[in-house]
Design a protein that fits this description.
The complex is a heterodimer of chains A (about 80) and B (about 350). Chain A has two helices and four strands; from the N terminus they run E-H-E-E-H-E. Chain A has about 80 residues and is of the alpha+beta class. Chain B folds into two domains: about 1-200 and about 220-235, 3-Layer(aba) Sandwich (Rossmann fold), CATH 3.40.50.970; about 240-345, Rossmann fold (3-Layer(aba) Sandwich), CATH 3.40.50. In chain B, helix 1 (about 5-15) crosses helix 2 (about 30-40). The chains are: A alpha+beta (about 80), B alpha/beta (about 350). The interface between A and B is small, with 7 and 8 residues.
Chain lengths: ~80, ~350
């Protein structure tokens, strides 16, 4: 099944606290080896195919650093 | 009204409300938000925020501003505080009431940016050279961080002693609801007749830490230590939680203090009589209340994010009247309540 959602993380607002990683019911997120400008390991989609777009991560993020987008079937051409 | 704020931002806002009108700093994680907040908000109240060329420059700018009688703040994290230490010794020697925030990270050296409490010795035992102390306040919530910043400015001014807020990366980055204390009106800040405000119509003031005559300098330092003893007598602060019937008392400050509060609640649910003793002033250390408690409590388990630094003050206070084991973590690792509870169970049974 294709992923239903996509998580977009504002890297410079992320402090790598891992609350989203712990919250995600499907194990989509993990802290990546990538650093932001403050030196924090930012959260990233480690298993994007599992994302349902439930937005739990965005609701829990203490720094409002997460946006979640839902995939919709492409509209038919008019 | 409560607002949701990051620890660093709450401390910065509290400083402005305390009448702080100059801030000098240099960026370092995990305390960058203090500099960012001051840059954004100090000019609006007629203050000045300078990102200095280095930590050494920043602390010496504080020296100048404080000598002119202005409430002034600097902040950094462990390696940056090491760089400021020479200047802090000079502040102590010249009796300049600067407030310094240390949002501790793991060391030694460059270490990492995770929360730690390895700067206790540096903060409370000197750090810089010479016979001096700092007033050291250790908040364990964002609310308390804001309140202690206000208190730090008040105490620093009252005693003409620099004051340090010893926070850590957890507290600096954590977001919590905070009820900000009301701003102090400028007229309520006591005047500073010793400040360098221009000597027109009065004898000149001298602000200096320098005296080549050992006997004269001894008298200055004796006066300074009279002040320190007064602070030790009047300004000790601590919190006790469920210590009344405790068979084991956890001793922890800052972030570890709040985690140990959770440990106490879980231990009580399991029928273990555990309490918490949380020093709020690390200097002056609450030795006397701890000593009193040691007359009836058989075990004091000190828990720190270090190899055991405050532990030494706990042992000096308990002075052999009770067991004083230690549990700590290193390198920025924060122990969970479960891990600490397992350690507690080595000493108490339900």
């Amino acid at each position: 099944m294709p992923p239903k959602g996509m998580v977009v993380i504002d890297k410079d607002r992320c402090k790598g606290c891992g609350v989203c990683v712990a919250t995600c019911p499907f194990g989509v997120l993990a802290l990546s080896p990538e650093f932001n400008r403050y030196g924090y390991n930012v959260a990233a989609m480690a298993a994007p195919e599992k994302c349902t777009g439930c937005t739990m991560c965005a609701q829990m993020c203490p720094d409002a650093a997460i946006e979640v987008y839902l995939y919709r079937p492409a509209k038919e051409a008019v | 009204m409560k607002v949701l704020m990051r620890g660093n931002e709450a401390m910065a806002e509290a400083a402005i409300r305390a009448g702080c009108r100059t801030y000098f700093g240099y960026p370092i994680t995990p305390q960058n938000e203090i500099l960012e907040y001051m840059a954004a908000h100090l000019p609006a109240v007629g203050g000045a925020c300078v990102q200095a060329e280095s930590e050494v420059a920043a602390i010496n700018m504080c020296y100048g501003a404080a000598a002119a009688g202005v409430r002034t703040l600097t902040s950094s994290s462990s390696p940056g505080i090491s760089l400021k230490m020479e200047g802090i010794s000079y502040l102590a020697g010249a009796r300049l009431p600067v407030v310094i925030i240390n949002v501790m990270r793991a060391g030694p050296g460059l270490g990492n940016i995770a929360p730690a409490q390895g700067d206790y010795f540096q903060a409370t035992k000197g750090g810089g050279h010479g016979d001096y102390r700092l007033i050291v306040l250790a908040p364990s919530t964002v609310q308390e961080a804001a309140e202690l910043v206000m208190l730090a400015f008040e105490l620093a001014d009252r005693y003409r002693v620099p004051a340090m807020i010893l926070a850590d990366g957890m507290l600096g980055q954590m977001m919590e609801p905070v009820e900000l204390p009301p701003p102090i009106p400028p007229e309520r800040i006591p005047p500073k007749p010793w400040a360098l405000t221009g000597a027109k119509g009065r004898p000149p003031n001298v602000v200096s830490s320098f005296d080549l005559d050992p006997h004269r300098f001894r008298e200055i330092l004796r006066g300074l230590w009279d002040v320190y003893r007064q602070i030790q007598r009047d300004e000790v602060r601590w919190e006790e939680y469920q210590t009344e019937d405790a068979e084991l008392v956890l001793v922890a400050y800052g972030t570890m203090g709040r985690i140990c509060r959770t440990v106490v609640r879980r231990a009580r649910r399991e029928g273990l009589r555990v309490g918490l003793f949380r020093p709020i002033t690390l200097w002056p250390f609450p030795s006397e209340p701890l000593r009193r408690l040691s007359a009836r409590v058989p075990v004091f388990l000190t828990v720190e994010l270090s190899a055991g630094q405050m532990w030494e003050d706990v042992r000096l206070s308990v002075d052999g009247r009770a067991q004083t084991p230690f549990y700590g973590e290193l390198g920025g690792v924060v122990p969970t309540p479960e891990e600490i509870l397992n350690e507690v169970k080595k000493y108490v049974r339900g």
